[in-house]
Write a structure and sequence with these properties.
The complex is a heterotrimer of chains A (about 250), B (about 100) and C (about 170). Chain B is an alpha/beta fold and about 100 residues long. Chain B is built from four helices and four strands; from the N terminus they run αβαβαβαβ. In chain C, the strands form two sheets. In chain C, strands 7-5-4-6-8 form a five-stranded mixed sheet. In chain C, helix 1 packs across helix 3 and helix 5 runs antiparallel to helix 6. The chains are: A alpha/beta (about 250), B alpha/beta (about 100), C alpha/beta (about 170).
Chain lengths: ~250, ~100, ~170
């Protein structure tokens, strides 16, 4: 494998996302999802043969059309599509067990993979310190998606906390559940309830991951992922000349 | 078929206190924003809004204090435009003026 | 929310939802969510209460004077909202001839009989985006809006944005 030279957290995270996608998968990302959008376009550029659905209604849009803004509700993921398939139809597709991957995010998460999207802090749900945007479909999709993958571009103890107060959604015991951060990948194996540190990125250490995670990490001997290849970095550059990937990393 | 053209003023007057409104579009996209702005010029109150992803047009009605309940899966303006400021103002803290009924 | 609107559109009091397991939202709002056993087996399903909006307020790119409406680009959940609501109010970028609909009827997202009002309102989605008419947020207006929210001056902001069109 030939490795590209210049990369940082944004590229590595995008590459980790790309590597989760397999030929034949049906893959969804939601709104405000610039990171998986750029990664999925790059996966297309790399020749991965998967189906791209999203809530602009477009199916397999023209990935060569570069995004101009971080919003993933624009016609950028609509133009050049081969069909339309609305969010209501996507919910049905996933509920009937046909959806392979949903890329979702969170405000906070705990070791059980319980996700806060609704509220943070304050007295209770109806008196929060911060009202978030809501689950945006994650409560519906997480329990029914074959491989739910959470992407979160911050990795710190404010995000990965000991206990989430109000869980907008939580993983299904009988399904795998993956979390991709700028430092590492956590995975919840099928049949288990807790996240395990699966692998770390080339530029970090288990100690750094531990220091930035609000729950106990017991794993010590984990895989170090390969850095991005030259082809992966080229694909990211090709689909994203306006640098939308970096929006979440400012 | 019946002709239904009317002025913005006439259309806004159809909205009465306590009505439940489904607000179209998503985030900052294709929202009936001017209709909402026009509603703020009327005394109508206690509105309920619903939508899979209410955005700016619904936010205006919370910012103006005219809506008291939101049914939503996502309520925000997305990315560069940020969280929904009117909704947050109405729904955060010890004495919230509006209620969130979150679906998915 | 999609399922609640669907139940409204179907004329039934509630609707089972695929998913929702593990969410604290279900126990939080018993007036909106209930868990029930399938009448045909042992499976449990989360159910959501129907929503029947008094009006769906939708902004579209093209409508005729009768309320047949086309949505260009992403249509989100607007057609479902139109079917769930008692009546629809349309604001439209432009009024088009009914022949537009007759050319390709399936491109009509909302048929006239669901609609009570049609308002010709170019720029009706500003300061937001309406594909393919205006493709970027008017950021100056958005900043002014955020300021107005903070200062409790949204009706004053609105008066300015409406430019006498009300």
């Amino acid at each position: 494998m030939e490795y590209g030279k210049d990369y940082g957290k944004a590229e590595m995270m995008a590459v980790a996302i790309i590597r989760e996608i397999q030929d034949g998968d049906i893959v969804f990302h939601g709104l405000a999802s610039s990171t998986p959008m750029v990664a999925m376009k790059a996966a297309k550029a790399l020749g991965k043969d998967f189906t791209y659905v999203t809530l602009s209604d477009g199916v397999d849009h023209d990935w060569q059309n570069p995004p101009k803004v971080a919003s993933t509700l624009t016609a950028n993921t609509y133009e050049g599509s081969v069909a339309t398939f609305g969010l209501d139809e996507i919910f049905d597709l996933y509920a009937s067990g046909k959806g392979d991957i949903a890329f979702l995010s969170c405000l906070q998460m705990d070791k059980s993979g319980r996700i806060a999207m609704s509220v943070l802090g304050g007295k209770d749900y109806d008196h929060p310190k911060l009202r978030g945007p809501g689950g945006a479909g994650s409560a519906t999709l997480t329990p029914v998606t074959k491989r739910t993958i959470i992407w979160k571009t911050q990795h710190d103890t404010r995000t990965f906390v000991p206990h989430v107060q109000f869980a907008t959604t939580a993983p299904a015991v009988d399904k795998p559940f993956t979390v991709i951060t700028p430092l590492c990948i956590f995975r919840k194996p099928v049949g288990e309830k807790l996240l395990k540190l699966d692998s770390i990125f080339p530029y970090t250490t288990v100690d750094e991951v531990k220091a930035n995670t609000g729950w106990e990490i017991e794993e010590t001997d984990v895989t170090v992922l390969d850095p991005p290849t030259e082809a992966e970095l080229k694909a990211l550059k090709k689909v994203d000349p306006n640098g939308i990937l970096y929006y979440e990393f400012k | 078929m019946k002709e239904k053209l009317m002025s913005l003023s006439q259309a806004v007057d159809l909205i009465k206190d306590g009505m439940l409104l489904a607000v179209g579009g998503n985030g900052m996209h294709r929202n009936p924003t001017l209709f909402s702005l026009a509603l703020t010029q009327r005394p109508v109150k206690e509105l309920k809004v619903c939508g899979a992803a209410p955005g700016i047009a619904a936010d205006i009605l919370f910012a103006s204090g005219q809506a008291d309940t939101a049914y939503f899966g996502f309520f925000g303006l997305e990315n560069e435009a940020g969280l929904a400021p009117g909704m947050r103002k109405a729904m955060e803290g010890d004495e919230p003026k509006a209620k969130a009924i979150e679906g998915s | 929310m999609i399922h609640a609107l669907r139940a409204g559109a179907y004329g039934i009091p509630f609707m089972p939802v695929g998913g929702m397991w593990g969410s604290d939202l279900v126990a939080l709002r018993p007036e909106f969510f209930q868990v029930m056993k399938s009448p045909f087996g042992d499976e449990e399903v989360v159910c959501v209460k129907a929503l029947v909006p008094d009006y769906a307020i939708l902004h579209v790119q093209e409508a005729d004077v009768y309320g047949n409406a086309r949505i260009l680009g992403p249509s989100y959940q607007d057609a479902l909202m139109a079917r769930a609501a008692k009546k629809v109010i349309l604001t439209t970028e432009r009024i088009v001839g009914t022949y537009r609909m007759q050319e390709e009827p399936k491109l009509t997202a909302i048929p006239h009989f669901l609609v009570e009002a049609v308002v010709e309102l170019p720029g009706g989605a500003k300061h937001g985006i309406c594909y393919p008419e205006y493709l970027t947020v008017d950021w100056d207006a958005h900043k002014a809006y955020q300021k107005a929210v903070k200062a409790d001056e949204v009706p004053q902001f609105a008066a300015k944005m409406l430019e006498g069109r009300l």
